[in-house]
């Protein structure tokens, strides 16, 4: 995170089941289905103080991710770094960069 200007900032990482990610997706995005990853920015005003240096949270549905890896013959060790990068891009507000990363990954497959 140092290269992004967010050195020493925190990101919460939560591993959840498909039911929980579907609930989050329905509640916050209006999409009633499971997905692999959701990112949620912290909506509170940020002071930059040590106890307030949190960019947000990433929720990863491991059962969904594992099933998707099996269906596409992907290794989990290859997929997780892509998903983490995608989630971090969303937390930093770089939505187009995040989508571009995923598109390049799928083209390489």
UniProtKB/TrEMBL annotation:
Organism: Linderina pennispora
Protein name as it appears in the record: Zincin
Cofactor list: Zn(2+)
Family annotation (PANTHER family): ENDORIBONUCLEASE YBEY, CHLOROPLASTIC
Pfam family membership, one: YbeY
Recorded family membership: Belongs to the endoribonuclease YbeY family.
Gene Ontology terms, MF aspect: endonuclease activity; metal ion binding; metalloendopeptidase activity
Keywords: Endonuclease, Hydrolase, Metal-binding, Nuclease, Zinc
One GO biological process term: rRNA processing
Residue spans crossing the bilayer: none
């Amino acid at each position: 995170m140092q290269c992004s200007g967010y050195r020493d900032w925190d990101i919460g990482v939560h591993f959840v089941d498909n039911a929980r990610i579907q609930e989050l997706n329905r509640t916050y995005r209006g999409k009633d289905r499971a997905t692999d990853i959701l990112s949620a920015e912290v909506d509170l005003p940020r002071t930059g103080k040590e106890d307030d240096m949190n960019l947000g949270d990433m929720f990863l549905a491991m059962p969904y991710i594992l099933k998707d890896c099996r269906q596409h013959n992907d290794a989990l060790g290859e997929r997780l770094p892509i998903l983490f990068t995608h989630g971090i891009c969303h937390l930093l507000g770089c939505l187009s960069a995040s989508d571009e990363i995923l598109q390049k990954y799928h083209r390489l497959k």
